[in-house]
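Morning!

As promised:
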Amino acid sequence: MAYYRIQAAVLVAAFLLPALVESTVRHYKFSVVLKNATRLCATKPIVVVNGKFPGPTLYAREDDTVILRVVNHVQYNITIHWHGIKQLRTGWSDGPAYITQCPIQPGQSYIYNFTITGQRGTLLWHAHITWLRATVHGAIVILPKKGVPYPFPKPDKEEVIIFGEWWKADVETVINQAMQSGLPPNISDSHTINGHPGPFPNCSSQGYSLHVETGKTYLLRIINAAVNDELFFKIAGHNLTIVEVDATYVKPFSIDTVFIAPGQTTNALLTASHDTGKFLIAISPFMDSVVAVDNLTATGILRYKGTHAFFPTSLTTLPPLNATPVTNSFILSLKSLNSIQYPAKVPLTVDHSLFFTIGVGINPCSTCVNGSKAVGNMNNVSFVMPTIAMLQAHYFNISGVFTDDFPGNPPIPFNYTGTTPKNMQTNNGTKVYRLAYNDTVQVVLQGTAFLAPESHPIHLHGFNFFAIGRGVGNFDPVNDPKKFNLVDPVERNTLSVPTDGWAAIRFIANNPGVWFLHCHLEVHTTWGLKMAFLVDNGKNPNETLIQPPSDLPMC
Ligand code: C2O
């Protein structure tokens, strides 16, 4: 009798099981340690996670909860940001230092705890304090829920490809010296593909290589984790079919050159259509302005099974440094999949219509080399990092940490992409723009020509946004909105505002907390090209920021 009862219990359990195993709790431990990087000609050990460069890939499924303990074994303060994870109500786990948390100090640890809701695809994690993200970064792979297929043919294999940017000198020294002198920091010494610069800079024993078999299809999870450079990516002899960006599906399109900004991710299908051979994989920077960048190409090899090591490699030409049209053809091809299963829920009404100028200017500095220093700003405010985390200040009602008067418009209108008026000195401040729960927001990001016009990859924490329009020159508030795409605009978390141009985004403020908006070129973030939104709690308990975890670091 007992036997049958057990059998029945097993049967019931078997029926319940599929529902129970749908979401899983994934446990990870990230140890932040030093590692020698002679392969890269580094003069000093680099800071990495779990002894790896790039760091370990974080795998999860949509709906999973991730519990990730970060232990800091180095002499620097550290935080980790899960770039693109929406962090619904869990701002404490977002990671930007002094925005949502105080840093994890040497010898200390902190547990990040978040659930992945309504997202699937590729994202990245990275350190979010000073310039440590140069070496402290890795991939996040979010698989669809169990039993849910990709909306494109199932690939035979998947491969993470991360781009980085490399300095022989210690990166913290590079930026600290720049901040003292007021001059731009030294450009990097090379770019990297999965940690390898390729043969050209004479440091790498071997470049990155990807082995393929004829007829098979590969899903490349491409990530730009470079510090300051927007990049082109190309594989000789092969087109790529783009199927997803920033963990949202897009209408598939075929292209030969990928354009990808720091913080962005792109999933591309590659079909191994040749019988045999070796094909160059290459990345090179994009810069269509006068700003100096590391103009080195990093390379790897795509190698077909059975191809001899001495087989000549098919080469490819990369776009020139200033190839704006190549960036445009990639960006303009991106459209939300907008299927029944994955609709594009673009806000059609706007509660806050905001206009932010973004750029880099010059302020006086008596201790600096030229008596002046570069500053980044939005609406003429250069963001000053507070000394305690803004989310803590908000939650515990600590006054004096920030003010909520970030301007929704520039202080004075001017010809943004023309000659900058005199006396355009930037003000300093720690200001947020305040939103009520569920407000709909439109932000026109207007590039300026203060110091030099430049393409800025702007990243929003806590939300995805829809990229509804872009153009060159000054935004025209009468005619440009008529051309907005409110049907199937691409949904993402980081977008490049064109040089001397503008981009418009929309999002719904359905996530309470303090959310950073900044240029993902780290040099510009350091200079102050950043601000934050504060989203108040909604009425219901499930519209409310959760309480802070007990191990939240103190400043
Ligand atoms: Cu990937 Cu605030 O950054």
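Residues 352-543 form a domain with the Immunoglobulin-like fold (CATH 2.60.40.420).

Hope this helps with the figure draft.
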